[in-house]
Amino acid sequence: MDSKHVKFMLGTAGAGAVLAAGVLTFAIGDVNAAVPQPVPSGAGITTGQTVTETTAPPSPETSVAVPPITTAPYNIPTGEPQ
Q1: For residue range 36-72, what is the model confidence (pLDDT) as tens digits?
Q2: Which residue among 15, 23, 37, 64 has its CA within the 20 to 30 Å range from the CA of 6?
Q3: pTM of the full predicted structure?
Q4: DSSP secondary structure of 7-65
């Protein structure tokens, strides 16, 4: 077989796969739009409290965070003489 013929067959197969994927996406994606959703009876739209208002403290609880040091400092060896 000629390489042009192989490229043409592969291109045709790829285009067909893309077309089939598009058709299936359209067919499957439109299923829920055809079926109307039931409306719950007796339940109206209500709004509840969604924001809680608070006041900020006058000053931060900690001015500076200092972790407790429990080990001696460690120097990472670089392989060079010091």
Answers
A1: 777 666 556 666 667 677 888 787 777 777 777 777 7
A2: 23
A3: 0.36
A4: HHHHHHHHHHHHHHHHHHHHHHHTHHHHSPPPPPTT------------PPPSS-S-SS-
